[in-house]
Amino acid sequence: IVKILDSKNRVAKNTIKINQGDYLPVIAIFGKQNLASYNMPQNLSPRSTMGATLTWTIFDGLARKQRVKQSKIELEINKKQYNEAEKQLKASIHKAYYELLDAEQNIKTLSSTLEMTEELIRIRKVAYSEGMATASEVVDALLANSKVQLLQLSAYYQYDLMLATLLTLCGMPEYFEKWSIEQ
Question: Who contacts 75 (Cβ-Cβ below 8 Å, separation ≥6)?
Fold first, then answer.
């Protein structure tokens, strides 16, 4: 969108220049050289011809002025749209980047939490085998581990989603495989 609006800005600037050029005269110079002519006497046709024309519109009912004014208004509208689109793009990039960092932090936190729940399962199983814990405590530890694994997968999904969004906004989706986290 930003590139399209930038192109529109360039077109509007060129349109202003073209419309302002209507105030200047149009001068055309032409020439012709006859190199060879068969079966025609040389004194009947000129060997070379040159000429110039000048066209200058002095008054056209203020149409040129209106075209220039309209072109300038279009340029201003395009500039405002470009600035707005640029601001929205920057805001989207910042949002995606900070959500990506948040997802990465969640992945790290949940990795350590997952290690703790695995250790809790090991402790509960040992305690159960020695009669110090109930089966319900072991199941609770397994359930807590499953919840952490689910949260971790959700964090990986969020990371991949934000990475894809960020790379797409930056115009580099081909780098997704390079920067995605291996599970």
Answer: 9, 12, 13, 16
Contacts 24+ apart (CB under 8 A), 67-72: 67/19, 67/22, 68/16, 68/19, 68/20, 71/12, 71/15, 71/16, 71/19, 72/16
Q: Tell me which H or E stretch contains 26.
A: strand 26-33
pTM here is: 0.63
Q: What are phi and psi of 60, to 5 degrees?
A: -130, 25
Cross-strand partners of 54: 27
CA distance 177 to 106: 20
Instruction: Give dist(CA 58, CA 171) in Å, integer.
Output: 50
Distance CA 126, CA 39 (A): 120
**DSSP string of 27-64?**
EEEEEEE----SSS-TTTS-SEEEEEEEE----STTHH
pLDDT in tens, 138-153: 999 999 999 999 999 9
d(CA 30, CA 50): 6
Contacts of 111 (CB under 8 A, 6+ apart): 152
Express each pLDDT in 15-49 by its tens digit: 999 888 888 888 999 998 877 777 776 666 677 88
